[in-house]
Specification:
Elements: H1 2-23, E1 47-48, H2 51-57, E2 77-82, E3 88-94, H3 102-113, E4 120-121, E5 123-129, E6 132-138, H4 145-150, H5 159-178, E7 192-194, E8 200-203, H6 226-231, H7 236-252, H8 258-266, H9 270-273, H10 284-297, H11 308-315, H12 326-330, H13 348-354, H14 358-367, H15 386-403, H16 407-420, H17 426-438, H18 442-455, H19 461-464
Parallel strand pairs: 1-5, 4-8
Antiparallel strand pairs: 2-3, 3-6, 5-6, 7-8
Protein name: non-specific serine/threonine protein kinase
Domain Protein kinase: 64-319
Pfam families: Pkinase, TPR_BSK1_C
């Protein structure tokens, strides 16, 4: 087991390097800080997460953080979590038996992780640590389509919103198909999620195979594509069949087996099939178009079903309220904006820093007994080497850059001086601290200020920072 784990980690590192070269993005991160790389619509680049960070984000995979519809009984439990950078995430925890091969899991995750689209709840990372197999995606806070259709409490989904859900689902499938990932496993109303703005998104988890042989339907056989029952494999046409069952869900507000629904459609009992909770507030013409489309999706022969572009072309003209926000159509509250951070007046020192007025900053330090390092270090003749001269030259260049407000150069020179480690200079730490502050690196500034204050306790540099 240990050898397999070691080889898998080695593979993941090699994979990260090769993908970085291909995509020019930052390598996978073992921390919760989102790595540098392309960001599309606010979605960070795909990354590798450590198990420790995902445990921290989910309170050690607490049952209180489970968001799976079936709770802990779900075969692959989904947790919500929050990273240190405050981003909410959804973490899907697979069993090792679902993905026994870590290389295959990494391959699948990286393939899906390349997708970025506003119609998807995008995949932003994964973790493969010993027996653990986890996927990390954008968190969708407003429940599933199944919850809003079948288990609603306050109001049902109005007709215009149902048409929007159908279109957005079709657009998501069309995008995945265009990007070379036409297979979606176990597509149903639980796979459609609503984001903060109330827009429907297709969960990216269904783009990952749940096992190496692709056998991934967990729903009742009455809703399973007929060809899947024959050969046990998902095909692009199988996905269209499943999309047809979701269209029926949207029309009826119930999870009706396709065979029963098709019998009603053939008998033209469309009105009997419609969700009674709509109370007649829908267009019969539009409903007929959707019924016909669902019927085509549910054809027994896969070749008789439409493709994703056909779905989009049929559903796009039916959108009757394109300018009404999804929040309004879905009947959810607008997310509260975080209250603005209270503005406290700057101290005189803070005001000098905000103006980058080094003269004023120096004056404040002088008033608090700030002084140079004279007498702090005694050098023997033996220590006066070329390395020492180079180090002192670096200090001199740093001081010149500091006076010229070339903060980046000053940081580089002072770092060269500090890294040698022969002399300990509180002045250099204090000045590099101020340079970091001017370069908007407050954490580094505070570290240096604390070092300066440790070396020379009479200085209150850290307290000012």
């Amino acid at each position: 087991m240990g050898g397999c784990c070691s080889s898998s980690r080695s593979y993941l590192k090699d994979r990260a390097f090769s993908d970085r070269r291909r995509s020019q993005t930052a390598p996978p991160s073992n921390g919760v800080e989102i790595p540098a790389g392309p960001v599309v619509g606010g979605v960070p680049a795909f990354a590798e997460f450590s198990l420790a960070d995902l445990k921290a984000a989910t309170n050690n995979f607490s049952s209180d953080f489970i968001v799976s519809e079936s709770g802990e009984k779900a075969p692959n439990v989904v947790y919500k979590g929050r990273l240190q950078n405050r981003r909410w995430i959804a973490v899907k925890k697979f069993t090792k038996s679902a993905w026994p091969d870590p290389k295959q899991f990494a391959d699948e995750a990286w393939g899906v992780g390349k997708l970025r689209n506003k119609r998807l709840a995008n995949l932003i990372g994964y973790c493969c640590d010993r027996d653990e197999r986890l996927l990390v995606a954008e968190y969708m806070p407003n429940d599933t389509l199944a919850k809003h259709l079948f288990h609603w409490e306050n109001q049902t989904i109005e007709w215009a919103m149902r048409l929007r859900v159908a279109l957005y689902l079709a657009e998501a499938l069309d995008y995945c198909n265009t990007e070379g990932l036409p297979l979606y496993h176990d597509l149903n109303a639980y796979r459609v999620l609503f984001d903060e703005a109330g827009d429907p998104r297709l969960s990216c988890f269904g783009l990952m195979k749940n096992s190496k042989d692709g056998k991934s339907f967990s729903v009742n056989l009455a809703y399973t594509p007929p060809e899947y029952l024959r050969n046990g494999r998902v095909t692009p046409e199988s996905v269209i069949f499943s999309c047809g069952t979701v269209l029926l869900d949207l029309l009826s507000g119930k999870h009706i087996p396709p065979s029963h629904a098709l019998d009603m459609i053939r008998g033209r009992n469309i009105l009997l099939l419609m969700d009674s909770h709509l109370e007649g507030n829908f267009s019969t013409e539009e409903a007929t178009v959707v019924f016909d489309l669902a019927s085509r999706c549910l054809q027994y022969e896969p070749r008789d079903r439409p493709n994703p572009k056909d779905l989009v072309a049929t559903l796009a003209p039916l959108q009757s309220k394109p300018d009404v926000p999804s929040q309004v159509l879905l009947g959810i509250a607008k997310p509260e904006e975080a209250p603005p951070t209270p503005q406290h007046p700057l101290s005189p020192m803070g005001d000098a820093c905000s103006r980058m007025d080094l003269t004023a900053i120096h004056q404040f330090l002088v008033m608090t007994h700030y002084k140079d390092d004279e007498g702090t270090n005694e050098l023997s003749f033996q220590e006066w080497t070329q390395q020492m001269r180079d180090m002192l030259e670096a200090r001199k260049r740093g001081d010149l850059a500091f006076r010229d407000r070339d903060f980046k150069t000053a940081i580089d020179c002072y770092t060269q001086f500090i890294d040698v480690g022969t002399m300990v200079s509180p002045t250099v730490y204090a000045r590099r601290s101020l340079c970091y502050l001017m370069c908007d690196q407050p954490d580094a500034a505070l570290r240096d200020a604390m070092q300066a204050q440790c070396v020379y306790p009479d200085w209150s540099t850290a307290f000012y920072i």
